[in-house]
Amino acid sequence: MSNEEIFKKYIKKLYWLTTIFSSLFIVTGGLLVFYSVNPSFFNFKKETTVNTVSVEEDDYDKIENGIHVRTGLIEAEGLTAVVNNCTNCHSAKLVIQNRMNKERWNSTIRWMQETQNLWDLGKNQEIIVNYLITNYPPLEVGRRATLSNIDWYELNN
Ligand code: HEC
């Protein structure tokens, strides 16, 4: 191989190396510019997951016409505490259909704690019981309204 041939070979190599590095440089630069304009484009996978989760969560605790759709409970102060503590073991229907006063709710809760592994509710107990007696007050079934405006008369024997 003559000196000239070796020289040509090096020039050729240099030419390719330069071409490859320039291309890489341009592509990387382009990507960097693109990334700085629109960073979320590159983590599209992560973003779809985030979207799915937030949509599911929206539906999960959806309120429609004042009713918490998933459980059927009335939306009011204390709803979250009731949903989180009272719908894990049985349906919320069991809670809704039992209308009790404060004392009976507290003793039902105590009964569940003693026999059904219900946990200590802490300060949530008052919130839950208040929610229940406010939104599902005891029904006075079978009791007629007190009589009023009665014209009493004397019996004449
Ligand atoms: C650890 C599980 C568990 C949790 C949490 C729980 N319960 Fe219960 N509860 C039960 C079981 C078990 C029964 C009996 C179910 C049956 O008889 O079919 C029951 C029964 C009831 C009953 C019916 C009682 C009766 O006399 O028939 C009511 C009302 C009730 N629960 C309300 C609640 C409320 C309110 C909460 C939230 C503070 C709650 N439960 C949380 C386990 C639980």
Automatic annotation (TrEMBL):
Coiled coil: none annotated. Keywords: Membrane, Transmembrane, Transmembrane helix. GO terms for molecular function: electron transfer activity; heme binding. The keyword Transmembrane helix applies. It comes from Seonamhaeicola maritimus. InterPro entries: Cyt_c-like_dom_sf. This is Monoheme cytochrome C. The chain crosses the membrane at residues 14-37. The keyword Ligase does not apply. It comes from the Bacteria.
